[in-house]
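Researcher: I'd like a candidate sequence for this fold, 136 residues long. If you have to choose between options at a position, lean toward the conservative one.
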């Protein structure tokens, strides 16, 4: 018998990502969003719009055309640009600062969180899973 190639920590994170993708898919469908717009306060491999498309296709067998509103690059964007993109977002993921302090968008998103919440359909703190009640 072969050993599992994934660590227990990876499996916990993978379940969290799958649960988030399922929840976003369900909420986007319930809201009738033709092209759900997602944003996050840092560049990540699992909360990117294109990756969410694939995860949802693998799990739901439906191609959901997620669009990524933030971040758009590693270059520092203006606060006005970030605020405009947050306002256009249907879903926004916020991480803890310890994992993403090197990306300029993070500090500006953290500074603007109070403005983001009223304009977005859903806010999720990635580190705690709050708002989506994501359990590992």
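Model: Candidate sequence:
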């Amino acid at each position: 018998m072969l050993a599992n190639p994934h660590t227990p920590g990876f499996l916990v994170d993978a379940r969290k990502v799958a649960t988030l993708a399922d929840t976003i898919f369900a909420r986007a469908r319930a809201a009738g969003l033709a092209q759900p717009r997602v944003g996050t306060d840092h560049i990540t491999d699992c909360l990117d719009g294109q990756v969410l498309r694939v995860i949802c296709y693998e799990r739901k067998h439906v191609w959901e055309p997620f669009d990524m509103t933030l971040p758009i690059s590693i270059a520092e964007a203006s606060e006005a640009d970030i605020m405009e993109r947050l306002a256009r977002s249907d879903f926004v993921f916020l991480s803890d600062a310890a994992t993403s302090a090197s990306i300029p968008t993070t500090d500006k998103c953290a500074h603007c969180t109070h403005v983001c919440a009223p304009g977005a359909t859903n806010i999720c703190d990635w580190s705690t899973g709050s708002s989506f009640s994501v359990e590992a």
